Write a sequence for this structure.
């Protein structure tokens, strides 16, 4: 048995883990019931349209829409951060096999002359050194 996590298109909140069985129409019916929408399309995390149940793997994360195009949930998160005044530019860096999550603004402001600051600074942004 395969299982997947379903989210409403454009959201990464209130996901539902469901078993995958039968046909794509069966999965869309389960998605409709679990998410409270009229599910008609499934997308993978990169926005690819799922049109065959054989394409779904165990532990996939899928986004369910009512027919509208794929909306990246990362864009939703960035938009809400902008309105709340928080950092909007979260980055995950793989350094020597360990993952570190920070913001671009932290990288460029804490050590402004570092290589990371130079790599992630906006092209028009300059550094004032005393």
């Amino acid at each position: 048995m395969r299982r997947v996590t379903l989210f409403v298109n454009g959201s990464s909140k209130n996901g539902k883990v469901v078993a995958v069985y039968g046909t794509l129409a069966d999965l869309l019916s389960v998605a409709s019931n679990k998410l409270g929408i009229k599910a008609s399309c499934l997308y993978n995390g990169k926005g690819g349209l799922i049109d065959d149940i054989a394409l779904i793997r165990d532990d996939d994360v899928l986004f369910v829409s009512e027919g509208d195009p794929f909306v990246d949930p990362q864009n939703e998160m960035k938009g809400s951060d902008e309105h709340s005044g928080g950092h909007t530019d979260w980055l995950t860096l793989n350094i020597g096999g360990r993952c570190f999550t920070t913001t671009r603004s932290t990288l460029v402001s804490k050590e402004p002359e570092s290589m990371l600051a130079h790599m992630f600074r906006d092209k028009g942004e300059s550094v004032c050194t005393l």
User: Anything to note?
Assistant: Confidence is low (pLDDT under 50) at residues 79-87, 125-130. Helices lie at 24-35, 73-84, 104-110, 115-120. The first strand starts at residue 2 and ends at 8.
